[in-house]
Specification:
The protein has 17 helices and twelve strands. With about 475 residues, the protein is α/β, with parallel strands linked by helices. It folds into three domains: about 60 residues, no CATH class; about 250 residues, Aspartate Aminotransferase, domain 2 (3-Layer(aba) Sandwich), CATH 3.40.640.10; about 130 residues, Alpha-Beta Complex (Aspartate Aminotransferase, domain 1). The strands form three sheets. The chain has a seven-stranded mixed sheet, with helices on both faces. Strands 10-12-11 form a three-stranded antiparallel sheet, covered by helices on one side. The relative contact order is 0.13. It catalyses: N(6)-[(R)-lipoyl]-L-lysyl-[glycine-cleavage complex H protein] + glycine + H(+) = N(6)-[(R)-S(8)-aminomethyldihydrolipoyl]-L-lysyl-[glycine-cleavage complex H protein] + CO2. This is Probable glycine dehydrogenase (decarboxylating) subunit 2. Keywords: Oxidoreductase, Pyridoxal phosphate.
Length: about 475
């Protein structure tokens, strides 16, 4: 690529009089716009020929990093490869050109797919029924908490206003509880990173509405005390909520419904094929155990005989969206599930767990492993084992970019000062994982032998080390012409 030409901004390639478009002859005449609608000055748009525009944006797209062109071990986000066939199915005109308000007898196939996904998710998670209405994971959390609140209110139990959340929980958990008008109570973790059951016992009373848990938790650890926790929570009259953000390693191993959870959400954009990141679209279906179906949001897709219908809701029912969620996302998830089938979907969790443990065991001699033992889909290092180099987790993350690999999640969870959360997913080959291990070991050696090399990274990317704080506090969001 000619960096001298195509490394420039589109504004810098502009030449007065150049055009990349042609408009048909005006057949409608000229009309004067009111002065209140006219700009005071012409908008400063670049003027380029068509080929320059095409080359500029094509080359610019090469600077994007995605799972299709590199390893993406981003912890707690399941950035795995998603087959393009799922995108093709969702983009078919028979689906994409539908209108959500068209007559039901004209969209029976779409409703069948919607209903089939509901039933598939129920089978995979052990829940009784699902709604696909929520538009994202956090939206699913809010919906699930609304269901829990409606359940307690239906029993005249209005004093249950507290939600217990582990101190290692995703930040959306307490945020969703607060938005739902509930009080957040934090339960501590033990030294091994799991819920402190002794601390939990002291928090349970008749004001608790629910306990929210992610399993495996944010540290990638399976919670071994789930049966006891579920028993204690249920004994006090509260419900168990499962945050499905880390469902990936559970596929084929166990189901939240069998663990004692009453309500849960699933991130289709993590576990079930929709590409994650970029701001959306997402989907956060919510499932409930048998006996809570009546509290699911309306409208709902139901089947009567061989016909699919929409069950409308009344004034007292929960509504979380005008229609039935992100249908394209749901189609991708259904395609993913049907492609893998009952047999192969069982391999997802075990392979994700195998890959994560392989990396952890291969690097624990050079990176600090604060919590020992078997992990699930992800694990956390606390920076380099050699603390004398002055090389930070941020430095390691920046240096990884030089080797064509995305950095893992850093400085989260907050339990460790130099946290580095790594999740390889089940879709990565042993060759890719071995290359990542070798690269991480190379960076550890550099930190000891050439620390300034790591501290100054990245060196091979289109731009070098940026001032993250300055960029966040004083972002430059528009082109500023250089008057020189």
């Amino acid at each position: 690529m000619n960096r001298k030409l195509y490394g420039k901004l589109i504004f810098e390639l502009s030449h007065e009089g150049s055009k990349a478009y042609s408009l048909p002859k005006n057949r409608y005449g000229d009309y004067e716009l009111p002065s209140c609608m006219r700009r005071v000055a012409d908008v400063d748009l670049p003027e380029c020929d068509e080929l320059t525009v095409v080359r500029h944006y094509t080359n610019l797209s090469g600077n994007n990093f995605g799972v299709d062109n590199g390893f993406y071990p981003l912890g707690s986000c399941t950035m795995k490869y998603n087959p393009a066939i799922n995108e093709e199915i969702a983009a078919r005109k028979e689906f994409a050109e539908m209108h959500p308000a068209q007559p039901l007898n004209t969209c029976q196939g779409a409703l069948a797919a919607y209903y089939g996904l509901q039933k598939s998710l129920s089978a995979i998670t052990g829940m009784g029924e699902f709604t696909l209405n929520p538009f994202a994971g956090a939206h699913g959390e809010l919906t699930g908490l609304m269901i829990i609140r409606a359940y307690h209110e239906s029993r005249g139990d209005g004093k249950r206003v507290k939600v217990i959340v582990p101190d290692s929980a995703h930040g959306t958990n307490p945020a969703s509880a607060a938005v739902c008008g509930l009080e957040v109570v934090e339960v501590k973790s033990t030294a091994d990173g799991t819920v402190d059951v002794a601390d939990l016992r002291g928090l349970l009373d008749d004001t608790v509405a629910a306990m929210m848990m992610t399993n495996p938790n944010t540290l990638g650890l399976f919670e071994p005390e789930i049966p006891e926790i579920a028993r204690l929570v249920h004994e006090c009259g509260a419900l168990m909520y499962y945050d499905g953000a880390n469902l990936n390693p559970m596929l084929g191993a166990c189901r939240p419904g069998d663990m004692g959870f009453d309500v849960m959400h699933v991130n289709l954009h993590k576990t079930f094929s929709t590409p994650h990141g970029g701001g959306g679209p997402g989907s956060g279906p919510v499932g409930v155990r048998a006996g809570l179906e009546q509290f699911l949001p309306k409208p709902r897709v139901v089947k009567h005989g061989d016909k699919y219908e929409l069950e409308a809701g009344g004034d007292g029912d929960i509504h979380v969206g005008a229609f039935l969620g992100n249908f394209g996302v749901e189609l991708k998830a259904y395609s993913y599930i049907l492609t893998l089938g009952r047999e192969n979907i069982k391999m997802v969790g075990p392979l994700a767990t195998l890959n994560a443990n392989y990396i952890k065991e291969s690097l624990k001699d050079v990176y600090e492993l604060p919590i020992k033992g078997l992990c699930k889909h992800e694990f956390v290092f606390d920076g380099l084992k050699d603390k004398t180099t002055g090389v930070t987790t941020m430095d390691v993350a920046k240096r990884l970019l030089d080797f064509g690999m995305h950095a893992p999640t850093i400085y989260f969870p907050l339990l460790f000062h130099e946290a580095m959360m790594i999740e390889p997913t089940e879709t990565e080959s042993k060759e890719t994982i071995d290359l990542f291990i070798d690269t991480m070991r190379k960076i550890a050696r550099e930190a000891s032998e050439e620390p300034d090399l790591v501290k100054g990274a990245p060196h091979n990317t289109p731009i070098g080390r940026v001032d993250d704080v300055l960029a966040a506090k004083h972002p430059v969001l528009k082109y500023i012409k250089d008057e020189d």
